[in-house]
Design brief:
Layout lengths: L13 H22 L6 H8 L3 H7 L3 H25 L4 H16 L2 H14 L3 H27 L8 H20 L8 H19 L3 H6 L2
Organism: Sinorhizobium medicae (strain WSM419) (Ensifer medicae)
InterPro entries: Homeodomain-like_sf, HTH-type_TetR-like_transc_reg, HTH_TetR, Tet_transcr_reg_TetR-rel_C_sf
Keywords: DNA-binding, Plasmid, Transcription, Transcription regulation
């Protein structure tokens, strides 16, 4: 029989507290994705977890703080995945390819996408949420922009506004993500996902890859 060890006074251990935080954020994310930000309630989230509202409010004073915590955790995971993908590239363009594929794979997750699509929908009518979404997006896309700048410096991509080039790449990837999300299969087909990604990457390269003259300028 497993006994849960608690500190004196019945306080949870650090591991127990961290596990509860993970469950809280997972439950909140699901509720936001299922009902939208405006319609999800702190009461529903606490009930889903079988905890008191007091426990939830002690950690997060309101729904906005809870939403911030959910997004912050996702940002950390997202940027970590992109950084790991970049390290597998032998040059900045290969790193960008790997980062783009990692971005694409995140977008094929239906629950992940449902959550962010609900945030985007409500940001359209909420100035405050719209401003926060813009800040979150900039933070999420920084690794892509930075890698584009490195690829430009190496003569592998044309010179230009790196942020705008990032936006073009993201638009291509989001289109491919939509194709995957709208498919009828429960689990995305790996071969089809790879084909969709590579076709979009080829379009990006055709438009943005530096020619011989620009590559010589960097030598």
């Amino acid at each position: 029989m497993n006994m849960v060890r608690r500190r004196a006074g019945g306080r949870p251990t650090r591991d127990e507290a961290e596990a509860l935080t993970r469950r809280l954020l997972d439950s909140a994310r699901s509720a936001f994705a299922r009902n939208g930000i405006a319609n999800a309630s702190m009461e529903e989230i606490s009930a889903d977890l079988g905890i008191s509202k007091h426990t939830l409010y002690r950690r997060y004073q309101n729904k906005q703080m809870l939403l911030e915590a959910v997004v912050e955790r996702d940002l950390i995971r997202f940027r970590k995945a992109l950084a790991e993908a970049a390290r597998r590239g032998e040059n900045p363009l290969a790193a960008l390819h790997n980062i783009a594929f990692s971005y694409f794979l995140f977008g094929t997750d239906r629950e992940y996408s449902a959550f962010y699509l609900s945030v985007i929908a409500e940001a359209a009518i909420s100035k405050q949420l719209g401003e926060r979404l813009a800040a979150w997006s900039r933070a999420a896309l920084e690794p892509i922009v930075e890698t584009i700048v490195l690829a430009q410096a190496a003569g592998l991509l044309v010179r230009g506004d790196a942020v705008e080039m990032c936006n073009v790449l993201v638009d291509l990837l989001e289109g491919a993500n939509s194709r995957v999300r709208l498919s009828l299969s429960e689990r995305p087909d790996a071969a089809e996902c790879h084909r969709l990604f590579e076709s979009r990457w080829a379009i990006f390269q055709a438009a943005m890859k530096a020619g011989p003259l620009e590559r010589r300028k960097t030598v």
